[in-house]
Automatic annotation (TrEMBL):
Belongs to the glycosyl hydrolase 28 family. It holds the Pfam family Glyco_hydro_28. Gene3D superfamilies: Single-stranded right-handed beta-helix, Pectin lyase-like. GO terms for biological process: carbohydrate metabolic process; cell wall organization. It is found in: Secreted, Cell wall. Keywords: Cell wall, Cell wall biogenesis/degradation, Glycosidase, Hydrolase, Secreted, Signal. It comes from the Eukaryota. It comes from Anisodus tanguticus. This is Polygalacturonase.
Amino acid sequence: MELNIKASFAFLLLFLARLSDAQTPAAQPAVFDITKYGASSNGDIVRHLLDAFKEACASTSPSTIVIPKGTFEMAQVKLQGPCKAPLELQVQATLKANADPKQLSADIEWLTVNYIDRFTLSGGGIFDGQGDELERLHITRVTCGPGHGISVGSLGKTPGEKPVVGVYVKNCTFINTDNGVRVKTWPASHQGVVTDLHYEDIIVQNVTNPIVIDQVYCPYNQCNKDLPSQVKISKVSIKNVRGTSRTQDAVLLLCSKGVPCEGVEIGDIDIAYNGKEGPAKSRCENVKPTFVGKQNPPVCAGAQSA
């Protein structure tokens, strides 16, 4: 599952999701394309999405709701089960929220998916909150994979980015993903702030980078790694993460030498690696975390224990 989320207001994603039972016979899902229900780029798609969801949720066989490529406006919406069969929401489009936060109700989040077993979110689409600032994002009970996992960033490439504050990821499972929990910023970056990030009760199964803070993120050598990131990361807690890593570096905390990470707390990490290189290990730069409980592999040897 890969989502790029840009938000200028507080919203909450509640996904009660599970992978389909591996023993369930494969079935060709019915497709519910929202454009067949009247959705277009000229107006809000909520009514059309709800119409498609009502039929898909009532289906006794697997179904897929498709929001096709294009750009659509979407007001606040709740998709609530239970549903009778596995359901996939395939977002290929760019979905835009109302650009005026005052038009948003404080009583409902932008997108809520609730009480749906065997739910899949896919499509590689973009949820665009019409801004760069992100405050108080909750992601709970998500099972995802394959894909990129859950990432904050990449940040710092554009001047004037607003702070990312309050991201909570809890009770999530990652299976065969590139990353588990990740924060990434560009080196040679503009100034920025990422603070109050909390990850708890995470299961990783054959994940390439289960835990990673990467402040030298530079794909395709598009930047100068010799200059440090100017995005300040602080108040990060990572607790009760367990499972298996696809690579030996199970924990990577690679913070900026220009603005080192502060207030990083690591608690009860148990991640195994069974490759020929040896047991799992960690790498740390420009960070002095505090610890609660046990860490396997040992994280940032010599750092302070709480």
